[in-house]
Design brief:
Elements (H helix, E strand, L loop, with lengths): L16 H8 L11 E5 L3 E6 L12 H20 L2 E7 L8 E10 L4 H9 L19 H11 L3 E4 L4 H17 L3 H9 L1 E2 L9 E2 L6 H4 L31 E7 L4 H19 L3 E6 L6 H10 L5 E10 L17
Parallel strand pairs: 6-7
Antiparallel strand pairs: 1-2, 2-4, 3-4, 5-8, 8-10, 9-10
The structure holds flavin mononucleotide.
Length: 333
């Protein structure tokens, strides 16, 4: 990880672009599709979405833009690590739907201790689909994560155990069961999962998900029904034995358009990295949100004050299943 201090004028070309892109590209993305491209100019890095990597299950591109929002947060953090404040122009050209953001290096400002911690956590932050440890979340962390979401223009709503959780679990279970019968969604999941590196260093490797038989509901009390990447193939390698506690949360935005999806992605990655600095990781759930009625039902039945962008379950974990990324040369230009 680069540790340059603030010096001189802020040119992006001076050997920094590759580092900035590689750091941004560690972001989480739906099915690890990495649906982003970066274009480096003399003074800016532009972030584009890559429509060829948009899922059929995501016709509006909501999950694609949340993924790209996460990469945008990673890019901002990488700029901070060079000792500059990032200046971000979101959706700078309304006539160009692919162009999501233009990032330039602003004033010099020393990287903070909190940012350093997040940069340190970035390589091992991962989506956690296995067992959580028995430890509770560190005191005060949830409030800090709520603050992270707020600072990025989103909200993290903690779901109380009891009635609210049960309502959510029921909706997730019913919607997920329906989507598991959708042949196109199944085809996409099969395409993006299974092999060690996945298609073109993308996708979710078998070591990062459990086999279908072990991830079924009922076996994992307090855990929402997961996306079944295994698809009955019996290739999932993750153990799910053991009941570690999880805190359930919903990421919300006040509006529900492209700008808000980018906010949600930035909020998501910021809070995931912050949590990872304390050995707290998250399971992410968007499968039920691909069903518009279920998405609305979650908002209505839990009386949530915003559009539902992501469901999370957070817990302490001491294992990691890192996934591969495409190298900078594959995602630039
Ligand atoms: C918008 C979005 C939606 C996601 N949906 C799910 C999901 O429904 N189920 C799941 O297990 N993981 C989900 N993930 C996690 C991705 O599969 C994960 O980020 C990707 O495989 C890369 O792995 P990593 O997060 O461990 O680096 C989602 C991530 C994002 C950004």
């Amino acid at each position: 990880m680069s540790d340059e201090t603030a010096t001189g004028p802020a040119s992006i070309r001076a050997g920094r672009a590759e580092y900035l892109i590689a750091t941004a590209a560690r972001a989480p993305s739906v099915h690890n599709t990495q649906p982003w491209r970066f274009k480096v100019t003399e003074s800016a890095i532009e972030l584009y979405c890559d429509f060829r990597r948009q899922l059929l299950a995501d016709p509006d591109g909501r999950e694609m833009l949340i993924s790209c929002g996460a990469a945008l947060y990673g890019l901002r953090l990488a700029v901070r690590s060079l000792g500059y404040l990032p200046v971000v122009d979101v959706l700078p050209q309304p006539g160009s739907p692919r162009l999501l953001a233009r990032v330039t290096l602003g004033a010099a400002a020393r990287v903070t201790a909190a940012e350093r911690e997040m940069l340190k956590a970035l390589p091992h932050r991962h989506t956690h689909r296995g067992v959580f440890a028995a430890d509770p979340l560190p005191a005060g962390l949830l409030a800090e994560l709520e603050h992270d979401a707020m600072a990025e223009g989103a909200r993290l709503h903690i779901v109380d155990q009891g009635v609210a959780y049960q309502r959510l679990a029921d909706i997730v279970s019913t919607a997920s069961r329906g989507l598991e019968l959708d042949p196109w969604a199944q085809f996409e999941m099969r395409f993006w999962s299974g092999s060690a590196a996945g298609p073109g260093r993308g996708g979710v490797p078998a070591r990062a998900f459990p086999a279908t038989t072990t991830s079924r509901p009922g076996r994992r009390p307090g855990r929402l029904r997961q996306r079944d990447f295994d698809l009955g193939r019996g290739i999932g390698q993750l153990s799910t034995d053991g009941p570690g506690p999880a805190v359930t949360a919903v990421l919300l935005t006040m509006g529900d358009g492209r700008r808000e999806w980018l906010c949600a992605g930035q909020a998501l990655y910021r809070l995931l990295l912050h949590a990872a600095t304390r050995s707290v990781f998250a399971s992410l759930y968007t499968q039920p949100l691909e069903h518009e009625l279920a998405r609305t039902a979650i908002q209505d039945r839990l009386a949530l004050p915003g559009a539902v962008q992501m469901l999370l379950q957070l817990g302490v974990a001491d294992t990691a299943q890192p996934t591969t990324r495409r190298p900078p040369e594959d995602v630039s230009g």
